[in-house]
Amino acid sequence: MYENAKRKYAVVDLEATSAGSNAAIIQVGIVIIENDEIVKTYSTDVNPHQALEDNIIQLTGITDEQLETAPDFSQVAREIFELIEDCVFVAHNVKFDANLLAEQLFFEGYELRTPRVDTVELSQVFYPSLEKYGLGYLAEVLDLDLSQAHTAISDAYATAQLFLQLKAKIESLPKELLESMLPFADALLFESRMLVDDAYRTAKPLVSSDYHLSHGLILRREQEVGAEKQLSQQFEINRHLLGLEERKQQEIFAQEVSAAFDQATPTFIEAQAGLGKTYGYLLPLLAKKELEQLIICVPTKILQDQMMAQEIKAIQRVFGVEACSLKGPGNYIKLDAFYHSLRTQTDNALVNRFKMQLLVWLMETETGDLDEIKQKRRFESYFDSLKHDGNLTADSLFQDIDFWQRRYDKAKISKLLVTNHAYFLERVQDDKAFAKGKCIVFDEAQRLVLALDTFSRQQLEVKDILQDLQKTLTETEQLLDRRLLEEISFELNRLVEQAYDKHRYKGIKQLEQDDLALLRQALSELSLACVRPLQELLLSHYSDFWLSTTYDAESDKRHIFLNAGNKDLLDFKQLLPDTQKLYFISATLEISDKVNLADLLGFEIGTFITLPRQKENQQRLFVDSSMPMPSDISEHQYALEIAKRIEQLTSLNQPVLVLFTSKQMMFLVSDYLDTWSIKHLTQIKNGTPYQLKKRFDRGDSTVLLGTGAFWEGVDFVQADRMIELVTRMPFDNPKDPLAKKLDAHLKAQGKQPFWDYFLPLAVLKLKQAIGRTQRRPQQKSAVVILDSRILHRSYGPLVYKALEEDFHISSQNFANSLTEISEFLL
């Protein structure tokens, strides 16, 4: 009999006066496990002989009065020691619990020398795709009993259930996988590796046909979706089979999509947000028997993943449609790179834990999409080394099972293919057959203009260039090469210093031809690998150059980029091959009376369909007349005014989404909320938009501060009641190169860029943002617009009238709005 069969485990959780080194225990919870069963529980309060801080009382629910009559630790120390002295010590964050308890026991004359196992790290390794590993989150996703979180016995009991699930999962893994993990298991905290060692002793070899075993890696085979069923020509039948609620506007939209299929010209459909457009175009088009392949192209990878996980998963389940999601190769793991990484020794414990995590993940993923590893941001450089480069050599060990190749091949034969704007443009430029003869739907098509401009640019991070130059400079012996490298480094640093002086690392600095003359001359005389990226950017077809800066709040680092682009807009129509059918779907196609989306994309003819608009009765807009004008106060004062309003809105006990046009303003407001101890989530600071949305939907915080993707790319469906705060009108930055291009393009056509394009586009973005919080009939949302320029500037009446077409809107001071919002959301 193996030793692990005799093991006893003590799962321990402590509540303490703080998380610091001077913490005193106030509550102990212990769960004893034998033979994989919970056999005993123990709990006690402990009198710390000091007053508790307010945050500890709020977190645990424990009060000073409760602890006044509790025993001293000295009175329970012997009982605790005798209960756990012959057990393996298990905890969720074992370092804190074991160290604190061992220290307190030592002071009472008991030396605790038990092995220690940490369920946080084990969860990270063996549940590799989870977003977080806090006990509350794990309890939710793994169905653990955590009825009274942050009480010691409840947390210990939930941890005991987690431990048993982990133990069972590890013991279910095949011997080959566990053997591959053993060389890295010392990276786990304390004696946590004992679960891997114990499981390996009794593990069975892989026998399931659901997996590939190749060079020590075990990969899951893709699941078959079953026999495909022909969709009905009647939208309402397909809708009923999917269990969807009836929406009149959605049905009208679907009829228009179906009727336009046989028209040779592109079809542009303007449809109001919130009517269920995705099913509205998927179902009628998939029902077409003459359809060769349907390509859906959405703006972001987040929306791509969201569509695959929701609408397309449901369609596959009911109709068995073969579907594939395709991103750029860099999104997928390259198995050859990972294989070589496993054979490269390192003392970095985090990397070794990631190697274990990825070995488990490869048994579970069907896509190989590295975005499934939510913790990869902890060591992005390691994951960057594993990204696929799109090349698969003849000597690859994994040629037949390479994830990128499998996606690429499946994309060719799938009836339904989902991709994103950026990858579509990249792919169709090099491979016209990718889109030739296909039916293509561009969802949120207004964002194609930005995608086209981004696609026509090239960007390099200056810090990376300078590091490569410096490395080569120390290695090369050629005197001329060294002088040229020194000159290039000097010129780059000079340009950066100018940007710093004039813009304090904010915004954009346009570079003139004279700024680049010496840099170009030096580059033209070199043939070293380190300067090739610079040569491709500065010595090629680009005509426009600028420096831009971004700030990463999480790492507190500023990044400076050297950019190149062209002054003219890229002609989208010229990029496309002949297709079966083109659809462009947008909430607004006509940006103004003189500018529409078709013009900007290069289409002179097309069919335009505008669905009737309806005012949304479940949504109310309030323009805050008491908010100061942005130009009248400083940025810090404006941020303070925003923060005050957020604080007042939290009293309504509803989720609050706050949208910013500036990261700097977002961080300033976040700082105020931190100072006032108002719990909130902030984009970048607390994670990616995808991560924050999930946490917000789950109720981790009732306040979310966001920018960028939250204006257009993220829907809020979960909450029945919601408040949205818009801090500024989303005008384009006039210094942005795309804005400059459009300005010149429209002026050349005799148009007024601000009135004909930039103002109506800002209104369009605002409407789209408002629509993010009204995605189903049962929802109610109140939207507060803080930008009082709507009430005072010459363009204000146009904005107000445009919003009034779709929404019930009023302007009043914030105090009155607060009362109306409270009554409306009842």
Automatic annotation (TrEMBL):
InterPro entries: ATP-dep_Helicase_C, DEAD/DEAH_box_helicase_dom, DinG, DnaQ, Helic_SF1/SF2_ATP-bd_DinG/Rad3, Helicase_C-like, P-loop_NTPase, Ribonucl_H
Enzyme Commission number, as recorded: 3.1.-.-
Pfam families, per the entry: DEAD (PF00270), Helicase_C_2 (PF13307), RNase_T (PF00929)
Keyword Hydrolase in annotation: yes
Cited PROSITE patterns: HELICASE_ATP_BIND_2 (PS51193), HELICASE_CTER (PS51194)
Gene3D superfamilies according to UniProt: P-loop containing nucleotide triphosphate hydrolases, Ribonuclease H-like superfamily/Ribonuclease H
Domain Helicase ATP-binding: 236-515
Residues that span the membrane, as ranges: none
SUPFAM superfamilies reported in the protein's UniProt record: P-loop containing nucleoside triphosphate hydrolases, Ribonuclease H-like
Domain of life (superkingdom): Bacteria
Short motif (DEAH box): ranges: 443-446
GO molecular function: 3'-5' exonuclease activity; ATP binding; DNA binding; DNA-directed DNA polymerase activity; helicase activity; hydrolase activity, acting on acid anhydrides, in phosphorus-containing anhydrides
Domain Helicase C-terminal intervals: 641-822
Alphabetical GO biological process terms: DNA replication proofreading
GO cellular component: cytosol
Keyword set includes ATP-binding: yes
Residues at which ATP binds: 271-278
Annotated keywords: ATP-binding, DNA replication, DNA-directed DNA polymerase, Exonuclease, Helicase, Hydrolase, Nuclease, Nucleotide-binding, Nucleotidyltransferase, Transferase
Entry similarity comment: Belongs to the helicase family. DinG subfamily. Type 2 sub-subfamily.
Known function: 3'-5' exonuclease.
Protein's name according to its UniProt entry: 3'-5' exonuclease DinG
Organism ancestry: Bacteria, Bacillati, Bacillota, Bacilli, Lactobacillales
